[in-house]
Amino acid sequence: MPTDGIELGESHIVMARKNLNIGLVGYGFMARTHSNAYLQAPRFFDVPYQPILKAVCGRNADRAKGFAETWGYQSVETDWRTLVQRRDIDLIDIASPNDTHAEIAIAAAKAGKMVLCEKPLGRTAAEASAMTDAVEAANVPNMVWYNYRRVPAVVLLKQLLDEGRFGRIFHYRSKFLQDWTISKDLPQGGEGLWRLDLSVAGSGVTGDLLAHNIDMALWLNGPITEVTAMTETFVKERKHTLTGNVEPVGIDDASAFLCRFANGSLATFEATRYARGHKALFTLEVNGEHASAGWDLHDLHRLQYFDHRDESRLRGWKSVHITDSDHPYMKHWWVPGLQIGYEHTFIHQIADFLQAIGKNEKISPSFADGLATEYVTDAVLKSAKTKQWEKVLA
Ligand code: SOE
Predict the structure, then answer these.
(1) Which atom of ligand 1 is nearest to the CA of 118?
(2) How far apart are CA 117 and CA 123, in angstroms?
(3) How far, in Å, CA of 210 to CA of 208, rounded?
(4) Which of 24, 127, 164, 220 has the greatest number of beta carbons closer than 10 A?
(5) Residue 158 C-beta-side C-alpha neighbours within 13 Å
(6) What is the pLDDT along the chain (394 residues), one digit of tens a residue?
(7) d(CA 145, CA 96)
(8) Which CATH class is domain 150-391?
(9) Does residue 208's CB lie within 6 angstroms of at least one atom of ligand 1?
(10) 101 DSSP 8-state letter
(11) Ligand 1: does its nearest atom lie under 6 Å from the Cβ of 118?
(12) Ligand 1 centre and the CA of 95: distance in Å?
């Protein structure tokens, strides 16, 4: 409904819901975002399933118990193998470090569970491919938590692109800038710092940050065909938290690449943890024949839009405040003008998932979509080594 007057936020009638028993692996940052989403989605969206927080699993029993108390999980496991075999669990949600994703996902699929997995799906495309094969062979619902696809402003951009408003696309550019690893005294490895340990993370910013940019780009602008990349590790040795020894750093601290999309557009991508002053500056811009658009995560409720077809005297960039009830997802929240934030992207994603499984529909990003991103990140890392253009596997 158009909203040029006073509008009340929409509430919904709670329909009869089936229970969906969740078994969560992990108790860190991502486990919190997912748990919050399971609790909030049914309160704001008409979903056919009621997530039941059955069990949380983590290696440290005390931490897992504390997490269970905070979020309302009914039970605690310390071995994911036990969790995966539990008959009272319908869905395994993997929010543990990257080196655990493949083994858990494959076992969960074999046990017939629905499987949700934090990004990146695997440490490499080979791992992601085995995971995708497993969920497809078991025919179980699956999804990767590329949450930024569910920012309302980004969904609006997708709608505008799909409507063909931009005409031919010439350029796509995207960045993800952070600054939290600049200190050479920061150790690598262990809880909170496993993202700096190559064996656990699989890569540095390429898999951790660029994977977000790439997933969104593939969704908005279609397949990437070839890439040429450079990476750098600025701090070459760090103390390892687990061994206490100073060890070589294997991850990429910064990664940038040029690429071509199948639609003929050219693109630049950049991610780093060494951009002083930037905390999580995910940006993107698309330039088409008729229109351009831009978005950034620090101002996530705004879409910048320029349309050359506007009357020339008034032509200019618009900064659209995405809070009206005719904007994606927004009628489920507050009243026009009131913003939502980061945690809502996870709530939207699980609401979409619950609706999709209720209708037996495919949900994206699926594991196959997560694999497509990893074909690109693998090509980026390969190109940084070979210093050549590399083709992206389809
Ligand atoms: C890294 O700092 C990180 O937490 C990523 O792992 C997340 O995927 C990203 O959303 C925010 O930054």
Answers:
(1) 8
(2) 12
(3) 6
(4) 24
(5) 17
(6) 444 534 555 566 666 899 999 999 999 999 999 999 999 999 999 999 999 999 999 999 999 999 999 999 999 999 999 999 999 999 999 999 999 999 999 999 999 999 999 999 999 999 999 999 999 999 999 999 999 999 999 999 999 999 999 999 999 999 999 999 999 999 999 988 999 999 999 999 999 999 999 999 999 999 999 999 999 999 999 999 999 999 999 999 999 999 999 999 999 999 999 999 999 999 999 999 999 999 999 999 999 999 999 999 999 999 999 999 999 999 999 999 999 999 999 999 999 999 999 999 999 999 999 999 999 999 999 999 999 999 999 8
(7) 12
(8) alpha beta
(9) yes
(10) H
(11) no
(12) 12
Of the candidates 163, 144, 160, the residue with the CA atom closest to the CA atom of residue 152: 160
The rounded Å distance from CA 30 to ligand 1 centre is 9
Any atom of ligand 1 within 6 Å of the Cβ of 281: no
- Cα-only R_g, the chain: 21
309 CA distance to ligand 1 centroid (A)?
A: 38
CA 70 to CA 63: how far, in whole Å? Answer: 11
Angstrom CA distances, 326 to 7, 280, 333, stand at: 11, 28, 12
Q: Whose CA is nearest to atom 9 of ligand 1?
A: 209
Asked if the 6-147 domain carries CATH number 3.40.50.720, the reply is yes
The encoded tokens of residue 87 equal 């008959």
From the CA of 147, give the closest atom in ligand 1. 10
Answer whether 197 contacts ligand 1 (Cβ < 6 A).
Answer: no
Q: Residue 393 corresponds to which amino acid?
A: L
Q: What are the backbone dihedrals phi and psi of residue 35, each rounded to the nearest 5 degrees, phi first?
A: -60, -45
Angstrom distance (rounded) from CA 281 to CA 303: 15
242 Cβ below 6 A of ligand 1: no
Residue owning the nearest CA to atom 6 of ligand 1: 208
**Nearest ligand 1 atom to alpha carbon 178:** 2
Measured CA angle at 195 (ends 349, 30), to 5 deg: 25
Give which of 118, 12, 24, 40 is closest to 344, Cα–Cα: 40
Match 């039970």 to its residue by tokens.
Answer: 75
Domain ranges of the chain: 6-147, 150-391
Instruction: Please provide residue 57's backbone torsions phi and psi, each rounded to the nearest 5 degrees.
Output: -125, 130
